[in-house]
From TrEMBL:
It comes from Psylliodes chrysocephalus. This is Anaphase-promoting complex subunit 4. Residues 716-727 have a biased composition (Acidic residues). InterPro entries: APC4 (IPR024789), Apc4-like_WD40_dom (IPR024977), APC4_C (IPR056358), APC4_long_dom (IPR024790), WD40/YVTN_repeat-like_dom_sf (IPR015943), WD40_repeat_dom_sf (IPR036322). Residues 22-110 form the Anaphase-promoting complex subunit 4-like WD40 domain.
Length: 745
C-alpha cells in the first residue's frame, strides 16, 4: 500500500523579540535562532529552549548562522565582523575570530565521503612512495592542558579550542563572506588558510551574498552583488582542497594544538604575575607604613644595623613589636612561602611542561615542512618553523633560569624570616631557640641579599609601588630587559660554548638570551608561531583562480533571497527569488573542460481550483535535491502564507540552455506556471508570513510571521493517518510513489 505524506503543524508560539535568522541542524531536531537584540537561542522541535546566548558586545546584530557538518558546533556571524564558534552542549564559546567588517553569510562544508572502508592506522609496511597518512597520536603521551578554575575563561577568546578536534576525521571548512567583498576560508572554523578578495576578480566593489561549495570541495561558487545591484556568480578553482586535503588537515590540527598551548601559557604566566603582585602588595602593606617614617634608604640601613650590630632604631622596634608582631610574622612568612610555592608549581607543572609540549608540536610541524613536495604549496616553510623552535628552546631555558632564581630566593627569605623571628623574640625578652640563634656566614649573605631592595617598598606619595624589583624574581615577569643578569660563572656548558663559537652558532644549539625576561621571550615565541600560520594565507591565495563569472540578475536594492544545493559532484542548482511573484531556477553543470547552464523562471497563479489568485513568493530554500520549498502568500484579501513543496524533476524539464557568456537577465527565458507541476504538497499556515527555514534531512520546517514575533513549526513528511484533523487548506495530489522518490535526472 502506498504511503502519502502531508505537512503537519506541531507548534504555534509567540516570541518576545523579533527573529531575524533561523537555521535548522541537519543532524538533530534543533533550530538556531537570533533576534534583533543579537541574542542566539537553540530550540528543540517541541520549542523548548536548550539555551540562550547574549551577544559578546552591546548593539550587535546576528547576520548569519551556520552549523558544523557534524552538528556539534554553531558558527555565529555578527555585523561587527566577529564570528563566534559555540559548542551546542553547553553554549561555551570555543573560538572568536574577527573579520573586521560586517559578516553577510556563512557556509560550513565538508567533503562528501562515499561509503567505504575507512583507512586505519597500522604498523604494517606501506607500499613504496605511499607516505603514511598523518594521524596525530600526541595525545597518547602529551596531555592537553586542562585549565583550572582560575585560568578558565569559557566566554572569551582565550577559551579552549581542543573541542575542534573531537571526532574530526574529515576536513571541514567554514567560509565567511563579508560586506566589503572578502571571503575568509577557515579549516575547522578556526585556522584561516586564505582570504580572497572578490573585488579584484570583478574589478569593482561588491558584497558577498552567498557561498556554495561543490561536493568534492574542488569548486567554490561565490554569489556577489556590486554597487549597481548586479548579481554575479564567481566560480573559483578550489582543487587545492581536493589535492591537499590531508596536508591542510595536518596543518590545521597543529594550528589548533599550538594556538591552544600559546593561549594556555599566556593565562598561566598572567596567573604567575598576579601571584607575584599579590606577594609584593603583601610586603608593601606590611612595610610601607614603617618606610614612610624613615628617610630614603633607611629601611635597609635599619635592618642591616640590627643584623650586624644588634642595634634597633625606635622606628624599627615599634614596627617589629607593635605593627608586625610575632604572630603576624608567622602568618606573613606562611603567606610568602605559599606565594613562592604557587609560583614554583605554575612554573614547573604548567609553563615548563606545556612549553615542552609546544616544542614537540613545532618539531612535528618542521618534519611536515621537510616534505616539500606536499607542504611547500600551502606555505609551510622549514626555516620559519626552525626559528620558532629556537625561540621555544630559549623560552624553556629562561623558565629554567627563573626556577633557579626562585630556589635561591626561597633560601634567602627563609634565612631572613628565621633571623627576624629571633630578633622579635629578643626584643620581647623571650627565649630565642638555639636553632634560630645560630646564624652562619652563608645565612648572613642570604639575609643581606634579601634586604637589598627593601627601599623600593612604598613611596613618599603614599601610593603603592607595583612592579618594582624585589630580589631578582620580579624582573622576569616584566616586559623589559633584565636589570640583574644571572651569574653563569662555573657553568660547564656555557664555558664550552664560549670556547667553541662554531658550535655555539649552530642552528641546532638553543641560545640563551641573558638580557631578556620571561615575558619578552614568550612574546617573541608567540609572534613566531603565529607567523608560521600566516604564511599559508599568501601561498594559497594564488591557487583560487576564477574559472567563470556569470552575470545573473538585477533585483534592485532588496535583500537577496536565494538557495543552492549540490545535485551531483558536477551539478549545482541555484534558486533566486525575484520579488515578489517569481523565482529563477539555475542549473550549472561544470566539468574539467566545459560549463553548461540551464535556466528558467516560475510563477504561481493557483494551487487549487478554489483559489485562482496570483501568489507572492516570500522565500525559497532547497528541501532536498528533489524538492524546492517555497513560502507563498496570496495577494488578495486576507494575507496567509502557504508552504509549498515544489518537485524539481518536472521543473527541470522546463529549463532552457543558456550562454554563460551572456547576461542571464538579457536572455529570453520561459516563464512557467509552477502551479501545474505535479505532484505537489502544500499547507496554509493561516498567518501572514515573512521567511522560513526547512531541513530535508530532519523533515521539519519553521515559518516566521510577518511581524517576526510568531513562529509555527511543521513536520514536513507526516504520515497521512497522523493528520486526521488536518486543515482543509492542506492538500496533496496523491500518487503511487512518494515525492521524495522522484529523483532529479
Amino acid at each position: 500500500m502506498s504511503t502519502f505524506h502531508v505537512i503537519k503543524q506541531l507548534e504555534d508560539k509567540n516570541v518576545q523579540n523579533e527573529i531575524n535568522v533561523m537555521v535548522w541542524s541537519d543532524r538533530m531536531d534543533l533550530v538556531a535562532l537570533s533576534n534583533i537584540k543579537g541574542e542566539v537561542a537553540l530550540h528543540r522541535l517541541s520549542w523548548t529552549r536548550a539555551w540562550s546566548l547574549s551577544p559578546p558586545k552591546e548593539n550587535l546584530q546576528v547576520n548569519a548562522i551556520a552549523w558544523r557538518p557534524d552538528g556539534k558546533v554553531l558558527a555565529v556571524g555578527y555585523d561587527s565582523g566577529e564570528v563566534l564558534l559555540i559548542g551546542i552542549e553547553n553554549k561555551k564559546t570555543l573560538n572568536v575570530k574577527d573579520a573586521r567588517t560586517e559578516i553577510t553569510c556563512l557556509a560550513w562544508v565538508q567533503e562528501k565521503v562515499e561509503t567505504k572502508l575507512k583507512d586505519t592506522f597500522t604498523l604494517k609496511e606501506e607500499p613504496p612512495k605511499n607516505y603514511m597518512k598523518y594521524i596525530d597520536l600526541s595525545k597518547l603521551y602529551l596531555r592537553d592542558p586542562v585549565p583550572n578554575a582560575s585560568l578558565d575563561s569559557s566566554n572569551s577568546e582565550e577559551a579552549k579550542e581542543t573541542n575542534f578536534l573531537q571526532d574530526q576525521t574529515e576536513l571541514n571548512l567554514l567560509l565567511v563572506g563579508t560586506k566589503d567583498g572578502y571571503v575568509h576560508i577557515r579549516v575547522f572554523g578556526c585556522f584561516t588558510c586564505s582570504i580572497l578578495n572578490m573585488n579584484e576578480y570583478l574589478g569593482t566593489s561588491c558584497s558577498v551574498e552567498n557561498i556554495h561549495v561543490s561536493e568534492d570541495l574542488s569548486k567554490i561558487f561565490i554569489t556577489v552583488k556590486d554597487a549597481e545591484h548586479n548579481i554575479k556568480i564567481i566560480v573559483l578553482n578550489g582543487q587545492i582542497f581536493k589535492t591537499h586535503t590531508q596536508e591542510l588537515f595536518c596543518v590545521a590540527i597543529k594550528y589548533v594544538k599550538l594556538v591552544d598551548l600559546v593561549k594556555y601559557l599566556t593565562n598561566t604566566i598572567a596567573n604567575i604575575t598576579e601571584t607575584w603582585e599579590s606577594f609584593l602588595l603583601e610586603i608593601d602593606h606590611k612595610l610601607s607604613k614603617y618606610a614612610k617614617k624613615v628617610p630614603e634608604g633607611g629601611v635597609t640601613a635599619d635592618f642591616l644595623d640590627l643584623l650586624t650590630f644588634g642595634i634597633c632604631s625606635p622606628e624599627l622596634e615599634e614596627f617589629l613589636i607593635t605593627d608586625l608582631t610575632k604572630k603576624g610574622l608567622e602568618k606573613f612568612g606562611q603567606t610568602i612561602e605559599m606565594s613562592y610555592a604557587n609560583i614554583q608549581k605554575l612554573l614547573l607543572k604548567n609553563v615548563t611542561k606545556f612549553g615542552q609540549n609546544l616544542s614537540y608540536h613545532l618539531a612535528e610541524l618542521r618534519g611536515m615542512a621537510r616534505l616539500e613536495h606536499r607542504y611547500d604549496v600551502i606555505g609551510l616553510k622549514e626555516d620559519q618553523i626552525t626559528k620558532a623552535i629556537q625561540s621555544s628552546g630559549a623560552f624553556l631555558i629562561k623558565a629554567g633560569e627563573m626556577q633557579q632564581i626562585i630556589n635561591h630566593s626561597v633560601i634567602n627569605y627563609k634565612a631572613f624570616f628565621r633571623w627576624l623571628y629571633g630578633a622579635i623574640l629578643f626584643l620581647m625578652d623571650e627565649t630565642v631557640p638555639t636553632e634560630i640563634h645560630k646564624i652562619t656566614q652563608q645565612d648572613l649573605a642570604y639575609i643581606t641579599e634579601f634586604l637589598q631592595n627593601f627601599d623600593h617598598i612604598g613611596n613618599k606619595d603614599g601610593q603603592n609601588t607595583k612592579g618594582f624589583i624585589m630580589e631578582r624574581l620580579g624582573q622576569y615577569l616584566a616586559d623589559a630587559p633584565l636589570v640583574v643578569l644571572p651569574n653563569m660563572d662555573g657553568n660547564d656548558w656555557t664555558s664550552f660554548l664560549s670556547e667553541n663559537e662554531c658550535i655555539q652558532n649552530h642552528p641546532s644549539i638553543l641560545q640563551h638570551y641573558k638580557n631578556t625576561s620571561l615575558i619578552q621571550q614568550f612574546k617573541e615565541l608567540a609572534v613566531k608561531i603565529y607567523d608560521i600560520f600566516d604564511a599559508p594565507k599568501t601561498a594559497l591565495q594564488v591557487k583560487f583562480k576564477p574559472i567563470y563569472i556569470f552575470d545573473c540578475f538585477n533585483f534592485g536594492e532588496v535583500n537577496l533571497r536565494m538557495s543552492s544545493i549540490n545535485i551531483t559532484k558536477e551539478m549545482i542548482l541555484f534558486a533566486f527569488l525575484q520579488p515578489s511573484t517569481q523565482f529563477f531556477l539555475l542549473q550549472v553543470h561544470i566539468t574539467d573542460d566545459k560549463c553548461l547552464a540551464r535556466c528558467g523562471k516560475f510563477h504561481f497563479t493557483q494551487l487549487t481550483e478554489e483559489s485562482p489568485q496570483i501568489y507572492d513568493i516570500l522565500d525559497v530554500a532547497f528541501y532536498s535535491n528533489n524538492i524546492l520549498s517555497l513560502l507563498l502568500q496570496d495577494t488578495t484579501g486576507y494575507k496567509s502564507a502557504t508552504i509549498l513543496q515544489f518537485p524539481l524533476a518536472p521543473a527541470l524539464e522546463k529549463l532552457v540552455e543558456i550562454d554563460i557568456a551572456v547576461d542571464i537577465s538579457k536572455t529570453a527565458l520561459p516563464n512557467s506556471n509552477g502551479s501545474v507541476v505535479t505532484p505537489k504538497l502544500f499547507k496554509n499556515t493561516e498567518m501572514a508570513g515573512s521567511v522560513f527555514a526547512v531541513s530535508g534531512s530532519r523533515r521539519v520546517g519553521i515559518v516566521l510571521s510577518e511581524n517576526k514575533r510568531k513562529i509555527k513549526l511543521f513536520e514536513m513528511e507526516a504520515e497521512e493517518e497522523d493528520e486526521e484533523d488536518a486543515d482543509m487548506s492542506s492538500s496533496i495530489i496523491k500518487e503511487d510513489v512518494s515525492m521524495q522518490e522522484n529523483a532529479v535526472e
